[in-house]
Write a structure and sequence with these properties.
The protein has 80 residues and is α+β, with helices and mostly antiparallel strands. 41% of the residues lie in helices and 24% in strands. It has three helices and four strands; from the N terminus they run βαβαββα. A four-stranded mixed sheet has the order 2-1-3-4, covered by helices on one side. A hairpin with a 2-residue loop joins strand 3 and strand 4. Helix 1 packs parallel to helix 3. The protein is globular and about 30 Å long.
């Protein structure tokens, strides 16, 4: 598992990714959790897995959300 609890998979030029980035940053700051962002376009395997779903958020290595992030649900997941 990555050292970051949350991973945001996205791509440049994606407006939903921009929104998700802000939500993930706020939720992680509130919960004291670490996170990182991965550009799916830098890895052919990630393009195949996530291309049509970005942004995708994982928590502790498990799929949490795609397309839209519910910040309250993410915060709840981070506190559990």
């Amino acid at each position: 598992m990555d050292s970051e609890r949350v991973v945001l998979y996205g791509r440049r030029g994606c407006h939903l990714c921009d929104i998700a980035r802000e939500q993930v940053a706020r939720a992680c700051a509130s919960a004291g959790a670490t996170w990182r962002e991965v550009d799916v376009d830098d890895d052919a395997e990630l393009v195949a897995r996530y291309s049509d779903l970005v942004p995708v958020v994982t928590v502790d290595g498990r799929h949490h959300a795609h397309w839209r992030v519910d910040e309250a649900e993410l915060l709840t997941a981070l506190r559990n």
